[in-house]
Amino acid sequence: MPDSPMSASAYDVLGVQASATEVELKKAFRRALRETHPDTGGDPTKFAAVQDAWDRVGTPEKRRRYDAGSRTNTHSTTAGSSPFSSRPSTAAREDSRPRARTHGHPGGWRRERFLDSMREWVGRGVTLDDPYDPALVRSAPREIRRTLADALAEEATARTVSNLGIGYTIWHDVSTGPPERKLDHIVLGPTGLFAMLSEDFGGEVKVRRGELIGPAVAPEKPMHELAARAKSISRQLKVNFTCFVIVVPDDALAQPQISLGTVKGQPAVVVRQSVLAHLLRTGPELGRGRDIGGNELFDVRTRLTSGIRFVE
């Protein structure tokens, strides 16, 4: 069960309220095991989710830590911290290799939108001590949780691409008109120019007829929307994108990466977060990508640096 605002809580998976007693929690766990066990016709994925949920709240100590917001099996948070509040680390790195050039604030616009929405939702006059409190976030409307989930997804992508090396340049939160129609990332490197969105739809995504589908996928045609935004940058700055990429959580995609064919004349790919760096280093697999370098790379970088505007 990933640490995402869009994920079902451990209590949701077990089918109980967060206020359930220890006895009620154990009964719910046993019942859920019986209902989802593969040997009795249950769903193996749901069975694994039940076991994971119990591993998080199955003892008083684990439950206390879970309710306080920490995760005992994740490296992204420390004990007692909210899994939803972490930002890209600014701590000194042990790795001394040069990092990619980065511009803009990944996830910044959605972070601000989330905070504004949370304040409006709790109401005027109510003190919001910690807008990232896990219990508060889980109780918020889906639209608010989705905003935070996407901010976290953008920040995760930013951490990945920043480690690509000095040969890459990245722009985050790029304006293509209204803020909600931004490009989350533009990545320029030796394998080409990539327009990217980082999305957490809160569920599994599949591919059909060159587009992402799924019960939680919104907007309805995210890849075509990405292509339209990228094309506006192409027309404005006279650059050609090599590939359109949508990045999703690892558990949202059945394969490491799936080609969507071509969208508006360019290769389009949906990729797991964990294999994004490989895609950007090797390029798309549709035969349309080509290495760029020297004067061409310098010219494209100059045009983007001078012409890109960031969302406010």
TrEMBL record:
This is Nuclease-like protein. Residues 53-68 have a biased composition (Basic and acidic residues). Transmembrane segments: none annotated. It holds the Pfam family DnaJ. Residues 9-70 form the J domain. Residues 34-110 are annotated as: Disordered. CDD domains: DnaJ. It comes from the Bacteria. Residues 70-89 have a biased composition (Polar residues). Residues 149-256 form the NERD domain. It comes from Salinibacterium amurskyense.
